[in-house]
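Input record (one chain):
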Amino acid sequence: DYAWESARPPRGRVRAAQRLTNYPTEDVVDALRTTVLKTPFWGVQASAAKALGTIRTSPALRALIAGLKTKHPKARRAVVKALGEFRDEDAAKALIGVLDEGDPSYFVEGEAARSLGKTRSPKAFDALKENLRKESFNETIRIGVLDGYAELRDPQATPIIIEWTRYGKPHAAREAATKALGKLGEGKPEVTDHLTHLLDDPWFRVRLEASVALGELLDPKAVGALERLVERELDGRVKRRARE
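The corresponding structure, as predicted from the sequence alone:
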């Protein structure tokens, strides 16, 4: 009751929602669903949505799908993020619906794309590709799509991701694409070679993300290129990541 009663202090209600993940009963799921749909403060709604994503039962999934109707964009963003915890076609269908219909908030669509990749649905690849064309503030949707491809771990996405690292694409999207290669490039020498090439990129954040991605791939071939970057790099942030 504490989680959804609006008279209670928000901080306590958030903690109550977190604690309820230890008791994944039908009554608890119903209470969290009520909290997502009816509580007036988005922070408590978001905590309840996160709790449902942690519970990961079929009733919790249905509760989150119902929660897509909530009005506050930050609460909806939490709902679509929680849906990414389910490797389930119903979750994927709901997330594709969000992307197809659009949302007043770019951040909700970007999070929906990211979560769609996490579902590993066979339908995710084409849906993400379709949404890669969407323009948005600070590339918010496109970044979510590129992150979604990284979570999907589909080898078909590699050439698409590499294309979005090219100079001339929006910088924010290039950074996200470079980061995604760190998850998609394991065992692919061509990805290591491309990331090594990006260590010479004019945009410092691409150089930074390329350093991090090469570190994730753990390919010894990249060591020499990273050492040369450390020697010549003027930006301390990039130099530190290359050392790491």
